[in-house]
Amino acid sequence: MKLLEIAEVINGKIEGDDNIEITGVGKIQEAEKNQITFLSNPLYEKYFDNTKAGAVIVSENHKVIQKRPGVSIVRVADPYLSFLKLLEMFDTGNDVENGIADNCVIGEETSLGKNVSIGNFVSIGKNCVIGDNVRIHSNCSIENKVSIGDNCIIHPNVSIYKGCEVGNNVIIHSGAVIGTDGFGYAKEENGSYKKIPQTGNVVIEDNAEIGANCCIDRATMGETRICKGVKLDDQITIAHNVYIGENTVIAAQAGIAGSTKIGKRCMIGGQAGIVGHIEICDDVIIGASVGVSKSITKPGIYTGYRAMPVKDNLRSEVRIQNLQKLEEKIKILESKILK
Amino acid sequence: MKLLEIAEVINGKIEGDDNIEITGVGKIQEAEKNQITFLSNPLYEKYFDNTKAGAVIVSENHKVIQKRPGVSIVRVADPYLSFLKLLEMFDTGNDVENGIADNCVIGEETSLGKNVSIGNFVSIGKNCVIGDNVRIHSNCSIENKVSIGDNCIIHPNVSIYKGCEVGNNVIIHSGAVIGTDGFGYAKEENGSYKKIPQTGNVVIEDNAEIGANCCIDRATMGETRICKGVKLDDQITIAHNVYIGENTVIAAQAGIAGSTKIGKRCMIGGQAGIVGHIEICDDVIIGASVGVSKSITKPGIYTGYRAMPVKDNLRSEVRIQNLQKLEEKIKILESKILK
Amino acid sequence: MKLLEIAEVINGKIEGDDNIEITGVGKIQEAEKNQITFLSNPLYEKYFDNTKAGAVIVSENHKVIQKRPGVSIVRVADPYLSFLKLLEMFDTGNDVENGIADNCVIGEETSLGKNVSIGNFVSIGKNCVIGDNVRIHSNCSIENKVSIGDNCIIHPNVSIYKGCEVGNNVIIHSGAVIGTDGFGYAKEENGSYKKIPQTGNVVIEDNAEIGANCCIDRATMGETRICKGVKLDDQITIAHNVYIGENTVIAAQAGIAGSTKIGKRCMIGGQAGIVGHIEICDDVIIGASVGVSKSITKPGIYTGYRAMPVKDNLRSEVRIQNLQKLEEKIKILESKILK
Which of B116, C168, C218, C299 could form a disulfide with C283 if both were Cys (CB 3.0 to 4.6 A apart)? Predict the structure, then answer.
């Protein structure tokens, strides 16, 4: 693709050779002659002098330190967004072949939409509904009465237990388990535990993405619900009857215990833990490794081993750091008074 | 099923229409006309006035605020236990078809019990023993010399490494890995690590349940043992040579390091971490996200980033919260003394 | 194997019957008549009097308390290393059959080395390169353009996304996901998130071992790199564009966020969390459950909920433990001054 064509895609103005061939995108430190890169963060300006990229996207008013022969400049309104656009354009994307593998098994009364791809050794149960343009990669197990909307991608080795519902445009990464039993037992008199049947299901709404090896438990009764646009990183556990509001994003290895309700547009850090049966309101940010043991009713940032508003947490940490000084002050006071 | 028949199952006394048809169970907020629900926790009484359930189970002496036409009452000794009984009765349960899939592979010298179900693309090695009524779901890999007792359910995409032993009535959820190598290396002089062969196995006793994506490592020598009735939630790691005592329950994302021994009837919270080579006695409760770095020899509740008895931990937290006051007190003292 | 032959392997001197038959190794508490064990740690000497082992390896100058009839002694320079040698010798090892399963699927233009074993229901994409002596266990999914070096072992149910590169002598345990998408989104004006294509890959160098159910994310651009000799325990998440230096070992359930660079020979404890975009220098030891939120530029041991040098952390913990005394001292001062 000629640089001229690329400039048109991102509405940019070229300084330099507009005829060079660009075949992909790269980081400024690593990009090669036939790649285009971008410069937005001042910390990366030091790489400009040595970049091998054929072209660099910069903002309209960026003062490129020294123009270099062989490096064309493309000026745009927002270099990062323009770059993302190209990243997407050059993405070779998902490359499962169209078509249904000879060796997959599709149960009775299961309907497939148009243009569906199903990989090797995929097992789909009975009475399932699979939408249009769905791509299911190899070795997935989808049990009876599961529904999957249009345009979904299910990566290899995913397990979806019976009766779960997946919306449109959902991506589920490898090893994720959707609809496993919630952790529910009744204690018997002899100290053993009797399993409480987990009769509900999991509902994943449109545009959600579920990371690799995540576990989302089915409800005891009713449903565990992952709302529209929720993004889960890898290795997250969502317990039974949890509700995660629209456009909430959760980083890797976080865990949400049973029946907790998380609001919309929350951001939950990696390894954070949220106990069961509480509510987190909309627009809450929870730091990495934070433990939340009570409901949160005010938007804001919460940090600490026991979650508290970030300012309180910082003050508390400073006070602990100052304990040595406090001890010294008391010693001085004692030496004055208790002699 | 008529309400009359249901009342017999749970030994209840009906007030209202005993002839209505009940087809399932539901939560009091969500139950529909042909469902039965229960009322036990006073916090849920507010839902009684609007429930659409056809029948509500209450305790013998419960004062139902206002009887409603169309809602039959069933009085029992323990509403929650009665409800669990019905939950179980109406559970459609595991719905893998009986029978052995045409496409699964079963190794030489492997014996199968009566009434075994094996799903699509299951690979079972040589010299295995599979008990009666076992259901192995699709895409599981069971390696050589594994034994599985009667009435076990192995969900999709489970891996069981060679030589592991699983008792009767065990449930293993999707993505769990049983018998992976323990994390053992000998440091070489050049700074690299040489793998120590992990020659032991994993033994899972009767009635245990292993959550989705759990990892239980095989012993270096000897065995890693999960005793009778142990219940593991999702994404737990149990390292090599660990021993977990009878009827201990562990919540999601906890980790137990190598050679540690956990007693009977312990409860371990989500994301808790227990170091290697220690012992936790019987009847210990460890909170969520607690770190245990020393043996625990007395039953009780332990909490904190470094585990301590819960009362000590609470006192310590209160003292930290009071640090501001302490600082102020010292300031006052200083102003009196050090002027 | 006669004890005499074993003594030759480990260059040991026998005291006792050199003609006994040894068929395996065992722990001193558990070993049986035809097994050999070792004694190195003084804490285990108490087991010597009752061991049923046929032979015990001890150091050249070890004073065996009381020689016992039927227990031969083998004296060597380093009992532990000698024992590891035997552990390895008696290890029955990986027992997947040589050969390519009839039912696996290997894509077009994919090349296989010599002596490759591929298990049941393995799906390998197009344009892959698989080296010599590689063993891929059942139900693995390897997508297009993946390369795997010589002598690798890929356990069941592993997923390797397109374009990833695996070196020689690498072991990948069950359920691991290599090359899943990094967690990258651009926030839209309406509060939803747009996926940023993850166009890079994962490179795993020679002699690395990847634990069960680990997730290693592909880079947004460029690569996520696991260097030579790195050992990852179970359930670790490595985010996009992370770099882990040579011979670094990481314990179970730790997480490394995006673009972070870890040095060589580091040891990272279980459940530790390291934020994104920082650097950890060589030879750093990070304790279990430690949170690292800033770069570390000096080798040493770091502990605490917020990582700090271990001595500072211990002092800080002691000060918190002493808070009660501090409060009492202030009370005394107040009673003297503020009456």
Answer: C299
Give A-chain residues touching C275 at CB under 8 angstroms: 288
Note the pTM of the prediction, 2 decimals. 0.94
B96 pLDDT exceeds 70?
no
Told to judge if B240 belongs to the known catalytic residues of this protein, a careful annotator would answer yes
The residues that bridge with B130 in the sheet, in sequence order, are: B112, B148
**B81–A333: do the CB atoms touch at under 8 Å?**
no
- Per the structure, the complete domain to which residue C137 belongs is given by 99-313
Distance, in Å, from the CA atom of B36 to the CA atom of B24, rounded to the nearest integer, reads: 7
Can you tell me the distance from the alpha carbon of A183 to that of C104, in angstroms, rounded to the nearest whole number? 36
Q: Answer yes or no: do B111 and B202 share one domain.
A: yes
Of C96, C207, C330, nearest to B326 by CB-CB distance is C330
B97–chain C nearest CA distance, Å: 21
Contact of C137 with chain B, judged by CB distance below 8 Å, is answered with: yes
- ipTM over 0.90 threshold: yes
Q: Is residue C331 part of a domain?
A: no
Q: Are residues B275 and B148 in the same domain?
A: yes
Same-domain status, B221 and B253: yes
Higher pLDDT residue, C42 or B208?
Answer: B208
Whether chain B has a CB inside 8 Å of the CB on C90: the answer is yes
* Residue C290 located in a structural domain: yes
Interatomic CA distance for residues C256 and C244, integer angstroms: 10
- Provide, as residue numbers in chain C, all residues whose Cβ is less than 8 Å from the Cβ of B333: 330, 333-334, 337-338
Tell me whether C92 touches chain B (CB under 8 Å). yes
First to last CA, chain B: 86
Q: Find residues 253-282 of chain B whose CB sits inside 8 Å of chain C.
A: 253, 255, 257, 271, 273, 275
Among all residues of C, which ones are annotated catalytic?
A: 240
Residue C322 covered by a domain = no
B331 assigned to some structural domain: no
- Beta-carbon contacts below 8 Å between A and C: 182
Range ranked top by mean pLDDT from A40-54, B44-58, B131-145, B316-330 = B131-145
Q: Are C72 and C135 within one domain? A: no
pLDDT of B215 reads: 98
| Interchain contact A212–C (C-beta under 8 A) | yes
Domain identity same for C131 and C24: no
Instruction: Give the total number of structural domains in chain C.
Output: 2
B133 and B11 in a common domain: no
Choosing from A45, A67, A90, the residue where a domain stops is A90
Q: Which two tokens stand for residue A54?
A: 């054929």
Neighbours of B303 (CB within 10 A): 23
Q: Which of A121-125, A317-321, B26-30 has the highest mean pLDDT?
A: A121-125
A neighbours by CB contacts (3+ pairs under 8 Å): B, C
Interface mutation vs chain B, best among C157, C237, C330, C332, most B CBs within 10 Å? C157
C103: contact with A, CB 8 A cutoff: yes
Among B57, B103, B177, B234, most A C-beta atoms within 10 A, so best to mutate, is B234
C155 plus C229 within the same structural domain: yes
Please enumerate in sequence order all residues whose Cβ is within 8 A of that of B71, keeping only pairs 6 or more positions apart, or say none: B16, B51, B53, B54, B55, B56
The DSSP output letter for A70 is T
Does B120 contact C at CB distance below 8 Å? no
The rounded distance, in Å, linking the Cα atoms of B198 and C93 is: 9
Rounded Cα distance between A187 and A198, Å, is: 16
Q: What is the CATH number of the domain that holds C26?
A: 3.40.1390.10
Contact map slice: A 214-233 vs C, CB within 8 A:
228-229, 231, 233
The DSSP secondary-structure symbol of A101 reads -
Indicate if A212 and A167 belong to the same structural domain.
Answer: yes
CA distances from C92 to A69, B156, C24, C33 (A): 63, 28, 10, 20
